[in-house]
Amino acid sequence: MPVSIPPRSVLITGARAPVALHLARLFHGAGWRVVLADTPASPLSAASSTCASYVRLPPPRFEPQRYGDAVEALVKREGIALVLPTCEEVFYLAAIWRERRPTAKLFAPDIDLLGRAHNKFDFIELCNDLGLAAPQTTLIKSRADLAAIRGSAPKLVFKPAWSRFASRVLLRPQPEQLDALAPTPQAPWVAQEFLEGEELSVYAIANGGRLQAFSLYRSVYRAGKGAGIYFVPVENGAAKAFVTRFAAGTGWTGQLSFDLIRRPDGTVLPLECNPRATSGLHFFRNPQAFAAAIAAGDGTVEPDVLRPQTVRLALWLYGLPAALRAGQISGFLRNLKDADELLDWPDDPAPKRAQWRALGEIVALALRHRISLQRASTRDIEWDGPDQSSM
Length: 391
Fold this sequence. Notes:
It is a single chain. By secondary structure, this protein is an alpha/beta fold. It has three domains: 1-108 and 349-391, 3-Layer(aba) Sandwich (Rossmann fold); 136-194, Dna Ligase, domain 1, CATH 3.30.1490; 198-342, D-amino Acid Aminotransferase, Chain A, domain 1 (2-Layer Sandwich). It is built from twelve helices and 16 strands. The chain has a seven-stranded mixed sheet with strand order 14-13-10-11-12-15-16, sandwiched between helices. A five-stranded parallel sheet has the order 3-2-1-4-5, sandwiched between helices. A hairpin with a 2-residue loop joins strand 10 (198-207) and strand 11. Helix 9 runs antiparallel to helix 10 (329-338).
């Protein structure tokens, strides 16, 4: 009588994110048992038929010790073999793995490399160390530093060194706009030369410095100035060459994402790094190849989706108002028709319905704390430097 071998279990964190849902579907399709975890009560991915179990965790930003205890217990209890972070909880998890050494494999680099890639000044310095071309970037740690470059403000882009979703970015501001900034050594800013060109985004995975998956795309519509909500695949050899060299030079293992600028002369330069999952993941739909690349470091996997991808609810909320302001409603309707709903998946309709409940939870949080929806969606997992990473 044949012996039944139980499937291996993967823990996917950041269950609120569509990328977590996509990873759950890929790993479930490859025969893994999928456990999802996050802090909201009703995240999007928890409704998926691919989810064997959803575990609610303490908020890592506010209760790191309890978060570490809960993750460690969860890995033991569920027999987790592999942990896949998706959002900024990756920094807290990397700190747990350094200090507590759980038995599961964490698909992410060491906390020091993660932090260096995430910091918008340190990332540019890292590129320089690797011999990779990058825009001129200045670290600002005081009002004196700010005053020194005040006259050049209209030629620069200002942003916090620790930030996400283009939050608080000042694009070519007038000098007087800098008066409201208060940079400190603990909360520095950067000033980066403004570069004309087309902004592109990358999602990649690497194992031991070897690039195994690469997806390049542009965002047609965004939620405000930051996160994209409508993604079109793009091909560019210079962008892939940059990511290949960065992964090799750092020995990267994990998910890896970038914002790049393609200049009018065809050159591609990096703007910043997001050492986590981003929406380019949605262009991969081959479960076996993708799971094998992450879990075993086997082979390479190519994007197999060619049509634009979007979340239609987000597109209506953010894209339609932008199109109306720009007088581009016909283009909006055409783009709406051309794109696939990235939440759609064979035999898994529940997450599409669950997005309303998940959105309601975020709205309630935003109202309670008087913050934006975007800020409310990440408030409890944001990581703004090493002072937050102590368990």
